[in-house]
Amino acid sequence: MTNLDPRVAHLRPHLLIEELLIRHGAWSVLRALATAMLRGRRRKRLEAADLSNHLRHDVGLPPSHPPPALRDLHF
């Protein structure tokens, strides 16, 4: 059952779970699952309003506020 074809692996999740249990053991899989569940609850979700303009630009969002006009810049 090793080396499952990735194109059909999504059709049979019970085989993927069985493969994990065979390779790593039940306790390791359960510990990893519990850790992932606990970590997922503590993770803070970022809102788009909280992102800096640089990050907003990177993901294709407009800036949260327009850049200053050239007349407002003092040298």
Rg (CA only) = 23 Å
- Share in β-strands: under 5%
Number of helices: 4
**Run of helices and strands:** HHHH
Shape call: elongated
Biggest sheet character: none
Low-pLDDT stretches are none
What helical percentage do the residues reach?
A: 40-55%
Which structural class matches the secondary elements?
mainly alpha
Overall pLDDT score: 78
Q: What is the β-strand count?
A: 0
Gap between N and C termini, in Å?
A: 69 Å
List the defining traits of the structure above.
elongated; single chain; mainly alpha; 4 helices; 75 residues
Structure description:
With 75 residues, this protein is mainly α. 52% of the residues lie in helices and 0% in strands. The longest helix has 17 residues. The relative contact order is 0.07. The mean pLDDT is 78.
Summarize this structure briefly.
With 75 residues, the protein is an all-alpha fold. The protein has helices spanning 6-9, 13-24, 26-42, 53-58.
Element layout with pairings:
Blueprint: H1 6-9, H2 13-24, H3 26-42, H4 53-58
Helix pairs in contact: 2-3
